[in-house]
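pipeline: protein-struct stage 2 | run 1193 | Class I SAM-dependent methyltransferase
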Amino acid sequence: MTTADIWDEAIARNYDDDCAEMFDDAVVGPTVARLAALADGGPACEFAIGTGRVAVPLWQSGVPVVGIELSAPMITQLRAKVRADQIPVTEGDMATADAAGPDVVGEYSLVFLIFNTIMNPLTQDEQVGCFVNAARHLRPGGAFVVECGVPDLRRLPPGQTAVPFEVTDTHVGVDTFDPARQLLTSVHLNRQPDGSYRRFDSHHRYVWPAELDLMARVAGLRLESRSADWSGTPFTADSAAHVSVYRRPAAD
């Protein structure tokens, strides 16, 4: 049984609007370009495919794509964009489920898990399970790509547990931290057309890049590269996020 939140119909129905900035071509374009290059003509599997923000344009670019998704309402939103025979999706836990697609497990050239979703499972064991399941899906030489924010605990003064990360006319976002358990809750207040606010809380286990590297080693993967974004900006101590590429050895 996964500890991750299972997003309901209301969250799924509003997801694309609430995350509209992440659907912008300036965000999606470099992401799709990098993933298509890493797929290198082979099939790809997205863990936590959601409403298809990246999977749909990646498929439209010519890369065969399948997905795994825990939330049935999110799959319903995806189905409004593409048919099941175009992008097959397994409803299940990305740490254990098999992808249902034209290629069998062990034959994917690319598995990707993006937009901080590695933090959705609330235990380290389940996060390790995501790496193990990714490695199980990959062909020798295949790549597992993880996009994740770097925990920003430097903004948290001693004794303070909450930090705002966005305050605009349409959205107020606050992260609340539990450092002892390495957990955070992101609280979102989204302004509605009638002027009211709708609240959405998401729960996460934040994870450091070095910890992800150890998870990869447990799964038999090795870090190939790490950049600060999809365009390849060098990763530094001041980077707020990272795109990490792990590789299954070709001679596995």
